[in-house]
Design a protein that fits this description.
It is a single chain. The chain is α+β, with helices and mostly antiparallel strands. It has four domains: 127 residues, Distorted Sandwich (Calcium-transporting ATPase, cytoplasmic transduction domain A); 332 residues, Calcium-transporting ATPase, transmembrane domain (Up-down Bundle); 166 residues, Rossmann fold; 166 residues, 3-Layer(aba) Sandwich (Calcium-transporting ATPase, cytoplasmic domain N). Helix 16 runs parallel beside helix 18, helix 17 packs parallel to helix 24 and helix 26 runs antiparallel to helix 30. It is elongated and about 120 Å long.
Length: 917
C-alpha cells in the first residue's frame, strides 16, 4: 500500500479503481488537491456524484475482523481440563471393556458440547449485533449545506468539517485550520498532540511530520478545521496497518476467568480425592474394577463444563437488556463492575438537564432584552423594540452569529452544532441576523477555537468595501465566560456609542452575572471591536456588548433517578465546568442533596488536591464531602477520580467531550453521551447512553447488580449440586459401602439437573428490592465465605438425604442393589431440582420471590422432570443407566427424601442462613 492515498498495482484497493487523489497530497497546496478532487469546494459534492463515488470506491470501512465461525466455536467446547478429565474416564472405561460407559461418556461430551455450542453461538452473535449498534458519523458539506452522514458513506472529494473531540474517519488533506491539533498515537505512537496546518510540507516527510494530513482512526484534540477526503477504507494509512496486524479481541471477562479458575481448582481437588480413594482401596485390597468405577464416578462428579458458557450467555443477555434500555455497553467486563458502583460523577448539561438551550434574555447597558418569538422581536423592559433602533443590540446579535460554528436547519431538530451555539443563531435570526448573510459581507479570516484555559472563542472577519474612518478593515467577534470576557474588555457599548468600562460598572456587570447564574441560567458575554490588520490580538481592548442568559431546564426524570441512587447507597456528585451558583441552582432543582448542596469551586479544588501533609485530612474531608465540584478542569477530574478510587470507591463518570476522555478511561465505568457526546468520548467509555439520560445510568447499575446476582446464584447452585455428588460417592467409598451412584447416572444428572435450571436462574429478572441495598464490595469474590458456608450446608443436606434413602432402600425396604441405586439416583436428581428454590434471598417471600417469579425456572423443572421419568420408564434408557422399575414404597421414599433438604433449607432462610446475594 502506498502512502499517497493511491494504491500501487497489486494492492487490495477495494471494489473500484484508485481514488482521483494526487500523489503525496501533503506536499501539494490545498487548492491543487481540492482541484483534483472536487469542482466546487464551497458547495461540496452533489448527492448523485457522492452516490456514484461510493459505488465506485466502496464503503469507507476497514476489512472487518473475521467473524468467529460456528466451527471455531464448536472446537472451543472441547478445550478445557474438564473435558480432558471426562475423555480420560471414557478411555479408562473402554480399556477395561466397559464399552457402554465409555460410549455414554462420549455421548454426554457431545451433548454438553452441543449445548455449549448453541448457547455460546447465540452469545457471540449477540455481541456482534451489539457492536453494530454503535455508528460513527461525520459532518460533511454536500449540496451546499452541512450534513451529518455515517462515516461508511464518505467518499474521496468529500469536504469534512471537524471540531475538537471528533474522530477522523478517513484520510484528509487539511484545507482550513484554527489551532487544529490531532492525537495520532494510534498510527505513530507519539502521545503528544500534533499541530496541523494548511501550508504543504516536503514530499518525503515521514508520516509523523505530515502536518497537512489527518488520518483515519486519529482524533481531534483541539481547535477546528476542514479537510478534503483523499483516501477511504482499506486505502487509508489505518487500512494499510490493518493488513499487517491480525486483530483479535479478548472478550474473556475477569468474572469468567475467576469462574474458570474456580472450576480448575475443584477438578484438582477431585483428582486428589480420587488419588486418596485409589490408594485406600488398593491398601484395603479392593477389586481394581471397583476402584476404577469409583474413580470414574468422582471424575465426572465435578464442575459442569457449562459453567463459563452459562456465564457468557448471562452477560450477553444482560447487555442486550441494557441496550434495550438505551445503555450500550462496550465491554463485557463493565457489566460486572456496574453492580458495584458506589459514586457517580455526573456533568450537568444534557445529563441532569434537557440540553435544549434557549436564550432567556440579553442584558444590555440599558436593561434586559427578552426575545419573543410570538411578537417577532425583543421586549426591552416590557416594551417591544426593533433591533435596528438599538445598534448595540444588533451588534451583539451579529457577534453571536459570527463567533459561532453551528448551522441552523429548517427545523431545530436538523440543526448541527453545540446546543448553546444553536440557541445563539436562533436568537440572532429572531432579530433578522443570519450567519450565512453576514459571512458574505464579512468573511471569516481567522478563528481561535474555544480554549478551556482562556474560556473564550474569537473570530476575525474582513469587511467589504472602503475602510472605516479609523482605517479598520477587520472585525473581531468574541464570546465566552463572563469573567474572562470582562477581564479583556476596556469599553462598554451603549445606545449612544461606547464608553470606558469603569471599575464600578465592571463590578455591576459581574454582580449581574452572579445573579443570573444563581437562578440556574447559563451566562455568556459577547464582545467585539474593530481592527486595522489581520494580525490583531483578539482578546484585548474589547468592547462589552451584552450578557446572554440561556436556560436549560432540568430533566423531569432526574429527581426520581437520584432518589433511586440514594436508596441504592450510591452517592451522586456533580462535576461541571459551569459556575458554582448555576450548578447549585440545578442541584437543588433535581434534588441532588436532601439539604443545601456543598460546593467546591475549581480554584479550591486545586488547593485541596495540593494540600500538604499537615492539612491533608481536612482537605480530604472537604473534597470528598462536596456535592458539587464547579469550574473543574479535565486534569482535576482525573485527579478527583484517583482520590475517590484510593478511598475504595467504584466510580462511574459521565462525559461528552474530548477533554473528558482521560477521565472516562480512568473511571471504573466511563459513561459517554450518545446524542451529544464526541466520538473520542464514546470510544474511551465503557458505556454509551443512547438517550443521554441520567436515569439510564441507574437502570444500568440495576441490571449490573441483577446480572452479578444471577451469576452468583447459578454458581452457588451448580457447585452445591456437584459437591453433593462428590460427597455421596466419597463418603460411601470411605465407609466401604456400595456406590450409590454410577458414572453414567452422574453424567445424566450433570446434563439434566445442572444445566437447565442453572440456565433458567441466569435468565432471571432479579430481586425487586435490588436497588435498596448498598453496593457490593468490588474485591469480594463470586463466592464469599458466607456463600461457601451456604454451599457446604446445602451439599451436606442433599448428601444426607441421598445416603439416608440409599440405606433405607437396602435395609428396611430390602430392595435389590440396582433398585437401591435407582432410589439414590432419583433422590439426588429431584433434590437438585427442588434445590433451585433455595436460591432465593432470605428476605424475600417464600412463595413469591425472584425464583418463583421466573417462568424459565418452571419450564426447566418441567423439562427435567419429564426427562427423569423417561429415564425410568423407557426400556432402553433403563438398561444404559442401569436403573430399575420401582414400586410405590420406593417412590414415596424418593419424594420424602428429595424434599427434605429444601424444607430444611427454607427453614434455615427464616434465620437468615443460605444467603445468595
Amino acid at each position: 500500500m502506498s502512502t499517497t492515498g493511491v494504491p500501487r498495482p497489486g494492492d487490495e484497493a477495494g471494489p473500484g479503481p484508485a481514488p482521483p487523489s494526487p500523489a503525496s497530497p501533503w506536499a501539494r497546496s490545498a487548492a491543487d488537491v481540492l482541484g483534483a478532487l472536487i469542482d466546487d469546494p464551497e458547495h461540496g459534492l452533489a448527492a448523485p456524484e457522492a452516490a456514484r463515488r461510493l459505488e465506485r470506491f466502496g464503503p469507507n470501512t476497514l476489512r472487518a475482523a473475521p467473524r468467529r465461525s460456528a466451527w471455531q466455536i464448536m472446537v472451543a467446547q472441547f478445550r478445557s481440563l474438564l473435558v480432558g478429565l471426562l475423555a480420560a474416564a471414557a478411555a479408562l472405561s473402554a480399556a477395561f471393556g466397559q464399552w457402554v460407559e465409555a460410549l455414554a461418556v462420549v455421548v454426554v461430551l457431545v451433548l454438553n458440547a452441543a449445548i455449549g455450542f448453541m448457547t455460546e453461538l447465540r452469545a457471540v452473535r449477540s455481541m456482534e449485533a451489539l457492536r453494530s449498534l454503535g455508528r460513527v458519523h461525520a459532518t460533511v458539506r454536500r449540496a451546499g449545506r452541512l450534513q451529518t452522514v455515517e462515516a461508511d458513506a464518505l467518499v474521496p472529494g468529500d469536504i469534512v468539517v471537524l471540531e475538537g473531540g471528533d474522530v477522523v474517519t478517513a484520510d484528509l488533506r487539511v484545507t482550513e485550520a484554527s489551532k487544529l491539533q490531532a492525537n495520532e498515537s494510534t498510527l505513530t505512537g507519539e502521545s503528544l498532540p500534533v499541530s496541523k496546518q494548511v501550508a504543504p510540507v516536503a514530499a518525503d516527510a515521514p508520516l509523523a511530520e505530515r502536518a497537512t494530513m489527518l488520518y483515519k482512526g486519529t482524533s481531534i484534540t483541539r481547535g477546528s478545521g476542514e479537510g478534503v477526503v483523499v483516501a477511504t477504507g482499506m486505502r487509508t494509512e489505518l487500512g494499510r496497518i490493518s493488513r499487517l496486524v491480525a486483530e483479535a479481541e479478548d472478550e474473556t471477562t475477569p468474572l469468567e476467568r475467576r469462574l474458570n479458575r474456580l472450576g480448575q481448582r475443584l477438578v484438582w481437588l477431585t483428582l486428589a480425592i480420587v488419588g486418596v480413594i485409589a490408594v485406600t482401596g488398593i491398601t484395603a485390597g479392593k477389586p481394581w474394577l471397583l476402584i476404577l468405577e469409583t474413580a470414574i464416578a468422582l471424575a465426572v462428579a465435578t464442575v459442569p463444563e457449562g459453567l463459563p458458557i452459562i456465564a457468557t450467555i448471562t452477560l450477553a443477555r444482560g447487555m442486550r437488556r441494557m441496550a434495550n434500555r438505551n445503555a450500550l455497553v462496550n465491554r463485557l467486563s463493565a457489566v460486572e463492575t456496574l453492580g458495584a458502583t458506589s459514586v457517580i460523577f455526573t456533568d450537568k448539561t444534557g445529563t441532569l438537564t434537557e440540553n435544549r438551550m434557549t436564550v432567556a434574555s440579553l442584558w444590555l447597558s440599558e436593561g434586559r432584552a427578552v426575545p419573543s418569538a410570538e411578537e417577532g422581536g425583543f421586549a426591552l423592559d416590557g416594551k417591544l423594540v426593533e433591533p435596528e433602533r438599538l445598534p448595540h443590540l444588533s451588534t451583539a446579535l451579529e457577534v453571536a452569529a459570527l463567533c459561532n460554528n453551528a448551522s441552523l436547519g429548517r427545523e431545530r431538530e436538523h440543526a448541527i452544532g453545540d446546543p448553546l451555539e444553536v440557541a445563539l443563531l436562533e436568537v440572532a435570526a429572531l432579530g433578522g441576523v443570519h450567519r450565512e448573510d453576514l459571512l458574505r459581507s464579512q468573511p471569516e479570516v481567522l478563528e481561535v477555537a474555544f480554549d478551556p484555559d482562556t474560556k473564550m472563542m474569537g473570530t476575525l472577519h474582513g469587511t467589504q468595501g472602503e475602510p472605516m474612518p479609523d482605517g479598520s478593515r477587520y472585525r473581531v467577534a468574541v464570546k465566552g465566560a463572563p469573567e474572562s470576557v470582562l477581564a479583556a474588555c476596556t469599553r462598554v457599548a451603549t445606545a449612544h456609542g461606547s464608553r470606558p468600562l469603569e471599575d464600578e460598572e465592571r463590578n455591576a456587570w459581574e454582580g449581574r452575572n452572579g445573579e443570573l447564574a444563581g437562578r440556574g441560567l447559563r451566562v455568556l458575554a459577547l464582545a467585539g471591536r474593530d481592527a486595522t490588520d489581520a494580525g490583531a490580538e483578539l482578546y484585548q481592548d474589547l468592547t462589552l456588548l451584552a450578557l446572554v442568559a440561556l436556560e436549560d431546564p432540568p430533566r423531569r426524570d432526574v429527581r426520581e433517578a437520584i432518589d433511586g441512587c440514594r436508596r441504592a447507597g450510591i452517592r451522586v456528585v456533580m462535576v461541571t465546568g459551569d459556575q458554582a451558583v448555576t450548578a447549585a441552582s440545578i442541584a437543588e432543582a433535581v434534588g441532588l442533596t436532601v439539604g443545601p448542596p456543598t460546593v467546591v469551586a475549581g480554584r479550591d479544588v486545586e488547593r485541596l488536591l495540593g494540600s500538604g501533609a499537615t492539612g491533608r485530612d481536612a482537605a480530604r474531608s472537604e473534597l470528598l464531602g462536596a456535592d458539587i465540584l464547579a469550574r473543574v478542569s479535565p486534569e482535576q477530574k482525573l485527579e478527583l477520580i484517583r482520590r475517590y478510587q484510593s478511598e475504595g470507591a467504584i466510580v462511574a463518570m459521565t462525559g461528552d467531550g474530548v477533554n473528558d476522555a482521560p477521565a472516562l478511561k480512568k473511571a471504573d465505568i466511563g459513561v459517554a453521551m450518545g446524542r451529544r457526546g464526541t466520538e473520542v468520548a464514546r470510544e474511551a467509555a465503557d458505556m454509551v447512553l443512547k438517550d443521554d439520560a441520567f436515569g439510564t445510568i441507574v437502570e444500568a447499575v440495576k441490571q449490573g447488580r441483577i446480572i452479578f446476582d444471577t451469576i452468583r446464584a447459578f454458581v452457588l447452585y451448580l457447585l452445591s449440586c456437584n459437591l453433593s455428588e462428590i460427597l455421596v460417592i466419597g463418603i460411601a467409598s470411605a465407609l466401604g459401602a456400595p456406590l450409590p451412584l454410577l458414572p453414567l447416572q452422574i453424567l445424566f444428572l450433570n446434563l439434566v439437573t445442572d444445566v437447565f435450571p442453572a440456565l433458567a436462574l441466569g435468565a432471571g429478572e432479579g430481586a425487586p428490592h435490588i436497588l435498596s441495598r448498598p453496593p457490593r464490595d468490588p474485591d469480594e469474590p463470586v463466592l464469599a465465605a458466607r456463600h461457601w458456608r451456604a454451599l457446604s450446608g446445602y451439599a451436606l443436606l442433599i448428601t444426607g438425604a441421598v445416603l439416608g434413602a440409599f440405606a433405607l432402600a437396602l435395609g428396611p425396604l430390602a430392595l435389590s442393589r440396582t433398585e437401591a441405586v435407582t432410589v439414590s439416583f432419583l433422590t439426588l436428581a429431584f433434590a437438585q431440582l427442588w434445590h433451585v428454590f433455595d436460591m432465593r434471598e432470605p428476605s424475600s417471600p417464600l412463595l413469591r420471590n425472584e425464583v418463583t417469579r421466573n417462568p424459565w425456572v418452571w419450564g426447566a423443572l418441567a423439562l427435567c422432570a419429564v426427562l427423569l421419568v423417561a429415564a425410568v420408564t423407557a426400556p432402553g434408557a433403563r438398561e444404559v443407566l442401569r436403573i430399575a422399575w420401582l414400586d410405590g414404597r420406593a417412590w414415596a421414599l424418593i419424594a420424602g427424601a428429595s424434599l427434605t433438604p429444601t424444607v430444611l433449607g427454607q427453614i434455615g432462610k427464616v434465620f437468615g442462613l443460605g444467603r445468595v446475594a
